[in-house]
């Protein structure tokens, strides 16, 4: 790998936020809509490898990757190189007007990387929500059916259709209805919170029974699920849940859509989280990690489903923008050459070991879960499983003050999630985990 662009160190030179960030926050209040939030009130100046450096010169260890986007690190060399070259050549023609090679090359990579040996096609978009919307359009066109099944705790985006598919009301849906119709919610497998122990297969049958009775098997266009839920709190269904759902879809003629927007591109220790149980989804949605920070998303799937849509039925001005495609090709190249899936597994082992240590000393840690470099802890009031969102908020705030960027998640806001860039040097990972342990000590 090329030299990291920035000193890979945690460094605090002012209070957090520092004076320059405070001044930007003042300007922001006057012109930026209040509905757009930020986790940390520091303003970024540079970022690279495993750190984000703010305008005051503070360097934060990054356990967030911009919400699972910069898997290859920020400003990764092959991404920067490809983007520079592409910007110099042309920035946009619109693939629907004058196509270009980068789009085709990204679809070739997707055909090779997405699970399954079948013939595949892809269509490219700008954001995760747009990919999910298009997966639903494709499933409806291909099946001639309407109903969409999503799950408890799901997150699929903030557009009208994807808001309907997203489970959590505040902040995502509150006040924004009415929502799109024909979206139905099924119960998930959430091992930590099952009232009685139930296998993955049994949890799948519970969901299937509800779908068959309340939606009708013959009405289901698609079942959409995150193999490990992201915003929902890194909920990993019990083994057997996903395979049974996929099998039911096949039996019923419904399209099985894996939303791999947060889990994809080496994050969980495989190229895609579906691989863990050998699932071959009919359609896969990707975004985030695909392009090293540039906006790009895709729907990839069985040729006969994808090609069921009439010519001109899919598109958008910027979908598969050439600069974003160039970035994706650089990011994928680096994931391959640096074996980032393997690296994610190593990060996962280090994080899980450190978190188990923390759990032994702090009963507030109810559950540790996730896979690869996508690990979370669910915090509860000791002695039971009552969610403790306040503890999550306080730990996150302490980490931020100490120079470690962490994110929260979960339906109850009581989950701390860790998503370091997969290129993070070991010493930063260790320092971050020590800071986290320190924050639990102070709680
Ligand atoms: N599907 C599984 O994780 C985006 C959202 C952050 P977009 N998750 C981060 C926020 O609060 O807006 C996400 C996801 C899964 C779809 C999406 C949507 O992707 O690129 O944000 O539209």
How many structural domains are formed by the residues?
A: 2
User: Which segments are poorly predicted (pLDDT under 50) over 5 or more consecutive residues?
Assistant: none
Overall CATH architecture of the largest domain: 3-Layer(aba) Sandwich
By secondary-structure content and strand pairing, the structural class works out as alpha/beta
CATH homology superfamily of the largest domain = Type I PLP-dependent aspartate aminotransferase-like (Major domain)
- Beta strand %: 15-25%
Principal-axis shape: globular
Question: In what order do the strands lie side by side in the largest sheet?
Answer: 4-10-9-8-7-5-6
| Chemical compounds bound to the protein | ligand PLZ
Query: H/E element string?
Result: HEEEHHHEHEHEHEHEEEHHHEEHEEEH
Number of helices: 13
- The CATH first-level class of the largest domain comes to Alpha Beta
CA-to-CA gap between the ends? 39 Å
CATH topology of the largest domain: Aspartate Aminotransferase, domain 2
- Give a quick account of the main beta sheet: strands, pairing sense, barrel closure: 7 strands, mixed
Name the helicity range.
25-40%
What integer value in Å does the Rg equal? 21 Å
Write down how many β-strands occur, each being a DSSP E stretch of 2 or more residues. Answer: 15
- Output mean pLDDT: 97
Fold and architecture overview:
- The chain has 443 residues and is an alpha/beta fold.
- The longest helix has 22 residues, at 340-361.
- The radius of gyration is 21 Å and the shape is globular.
- It has a seven-stranded mixed β-sheet, sandwiched between helices. A four-stranded mixed β-sheet has the order 1-2-3-13.
- It folds into two domains: 19-62 and 339-442, Alpha-Beta Complex (Aspartate Aminotransferase, domain 1); 79-337, Type I PLP-dependent aspartate aminotransferase-like (Major domain) (Aspartate Aminotransferase, domain 2, 3-Layer(aba) Sandwich), CATH 3.40.640.
- Helix 3 packs antiparallel against helix 10 (322-337) and helix 11 packs parallel to helix 13.
- The protein has 13 helices and 15 strands.
- Bound molecules: ligand PLZ.
- Ligand PLZ is lined by residues 67, 127-129, 132, 155-158, 226, 230-231, 259, 261-262, 287.
């Amino acid at each position: 790998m090329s030299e990291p662009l920035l000193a890979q160190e945690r460094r605090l030179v002012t209070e957090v936020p520092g004076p320059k960030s405070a001044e930007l926050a003042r300007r922001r209040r006057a012109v930026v809509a209040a509905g757009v939030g930020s986790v940390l009130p520091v303003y970024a100046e540079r970022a690279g490898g495993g750190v984000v450096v703010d305008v005051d010169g503070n360097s934060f260890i990054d356990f967030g990757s911009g919400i699972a986007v910069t898997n290859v690190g920020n400003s990764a060399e092959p991404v920067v190189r490809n983007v520079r070259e592409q910007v110099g050549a042309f920035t946009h023609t619109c693939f629907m007007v004058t196509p270009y090679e980068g789009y085709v090359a990204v679809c070739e990579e997707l055909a090779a990387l997405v699970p399954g040996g079948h013939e595949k096609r892809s269509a490219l978009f700008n954001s995760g929500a747009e990919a999910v919307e298009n997966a639903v359009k494709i499933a409806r066109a291909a099946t001639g059916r309407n109903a969409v099944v999503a799950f408890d705790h799901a997150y699929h985006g903030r557009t009208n259709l994807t808001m309907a598919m997203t489970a959590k009301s505040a902040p995502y849906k509150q006040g924004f209805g009415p929502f799109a119709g024909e979206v139905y919610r099924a119960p998930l497998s959430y091992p930590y919170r099952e009232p009685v122990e139930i296998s993955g297969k049994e949890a799948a049958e519970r969901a299937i029974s509800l779908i068959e009775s309340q939606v009708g098997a013959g009405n289901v266009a698609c079942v959409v699920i995150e193999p490990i839920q992201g915003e929902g709190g890194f909920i990993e269904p019990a083994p057997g849940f996903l395979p049974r759902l996929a099998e039911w879809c096949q039996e019923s003629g419904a399209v099985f859509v894996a939303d791999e927007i947060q889990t994809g591109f080496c994050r969980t220790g495989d190229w895609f989280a579906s691989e863990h149980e050998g699932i071959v989804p009919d359609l896969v949605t990707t975004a985030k990690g695909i392009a090293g920070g540039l906006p790009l998303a895709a729907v990839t799937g069985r040729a006969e489903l994808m090609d069921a849509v009439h010519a001109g039925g899919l598109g958008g001005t910027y979908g598969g923008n050439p600069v974003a495609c160039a970035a994706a090709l650089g990011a994928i190249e680096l994931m391959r050459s640096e074996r980032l899936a393997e690296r994610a597994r190593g990060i996962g082992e280090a994080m899980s070991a450190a978190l188990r240590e923390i759990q032994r000393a702090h009963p507030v840690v109810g559950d540790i879960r996730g896979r690869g470099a996508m690990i979370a802890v669910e915090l509860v009031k000791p002695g039971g499983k009552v969610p403790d969102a306040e503890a999550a908020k306080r730990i996150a705030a302490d980490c931020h003050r100490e120079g470690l960027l962490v994110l929260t998640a979960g339906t109850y806001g009581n989950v701390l999630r860790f998503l370091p860039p997969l290129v993070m040097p070991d010493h930063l990972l260790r320092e971050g985990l020590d800071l986290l342990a320190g924050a639990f000590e102070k709680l």
